[in-house]
Amino acid sequence: MTGTRRAVAVLFLLPCLVLLGALVVYPIGYSLVRSFLNQSGDGFAGFDNYKALFTDDGIRTALKNNVIWVVFAPTVATALGLVFAVLTERVRWGTAFKLVVFMPMAISMLAAGIIFRLVYDQDPDKGVANAVWVGVHDTFAESSAFPKAHPGRQSPLQPEKGGFLTGQPVRAGQSVALPLVGVAPDQMPGSAKKAVRAAVEPGKVTGTAWQDFTRGKGVGRLGQVDPSELGYAGMKVEAVKDGKVVASTKVRDNGTFTLPAQADGARLRLPASNFKEPYNGLDWLGPSLVTPAIIGSYIWMWAGFAMVLIAAGLAGLPRELLEAARVDGANEWQVFRRVTVPLLAPVLAVVAVTLMINVLKVFDLVFIIAPGSSQDDANVLALELYRKGFSEDQPGIASAIAVFLLLLVIPVMLFNIRRLRREVRR
User: Fold this and answer.
1) Which of 25, 97, 157, 234 is deepest in the core (most CB within 10 A)?
2) Which domains does the chain show, CATH number per domain?
3) Confidence of residue 205 (pLDDT cuts 50, 70, 90)
4) What is the per-residue pLDDT across 347-362, written as a single tens digit (0 to 9) for each?
């Protein structure tokens, strides 16, 4: 058509053909041949390597996780992209919002994996996810400030169901000493003040609960309140009689407490809630949550990609159809569900299928985010290919996994190409 000779065309295409042959065609052919050879590569193994795909526990776990990835990751990322694209269409700051959502696409998978390894750290002081989770939890269920407190020597308290109970009943008009140890001075509540011995009150039971420890060898008197010792501010004290709580109170900032006359003849209990270990959040990278956690990081990266493509499709929609639906009495939800989404169906399909191809090959995030203790539970086919080929020295099985992945990707890729061609004809 252009008068260009075929030899010239081939000459210009030759570098590209050489690169495609070296980087695509040859590796595919070599992997196909290697998948039928044994471990050493000098003998024919038949279909043994392919049988391992369905008998090896690690590969079966990887297959199961790949199914979870293909079902949830593209669906959620596409749905979020659709919501973001539609909601930001009418606001003035929509462009800025799209820029922020799309920004993770500029970050490599390696960097994103390192970021989310820190985000999902178990320690709330390091991991953002647990810092937020623990903050919400502690808003409704306050953690104890004294998880390591326990009675010292010569203490009248005895262990009882996670808490501590006095050995003898107390009497009204008596001042009771409840000395405890085990909490470092710098871990005491900020509201704690220097402890004082509670004064006796007629008809009431009074007492002091305090940290019976003074720094320095030989300093301080055991079982007595010393000037530098602090009270257990906020600790709960219960009066128990015949197995029932008849009165309760909280320790003041200076360690003193007062119980009414009902406490006469009861035993004093410091319940287990005083010594409950602080809530430490969820084990995001543990065996049960590691796969959903990594999928969450993938969605964080790729929701912006889906949003941009869907927003481009949304910009090309005929506005008269949307306005006609509104004139006919449809509300915004009905317009979105019955007009916008059906018109965007081709774009949504392209986005979802593209993400499906992408998640079938996911490797970086799983390899970096999942710790060694739960990497088997987060395993996917691409990671198992790497492990079989390099860690376990089984290149035949690794090649079989590579061919299997190619077979999984080809139908999805062909579907995407057919849909794109159909759109071009329209």
Assistant:
1) 157
2) 27-131+284-425 (1.10.3720.10), 157-275 (no CATH)
3) very high
4) 898 899 889 989 998 9
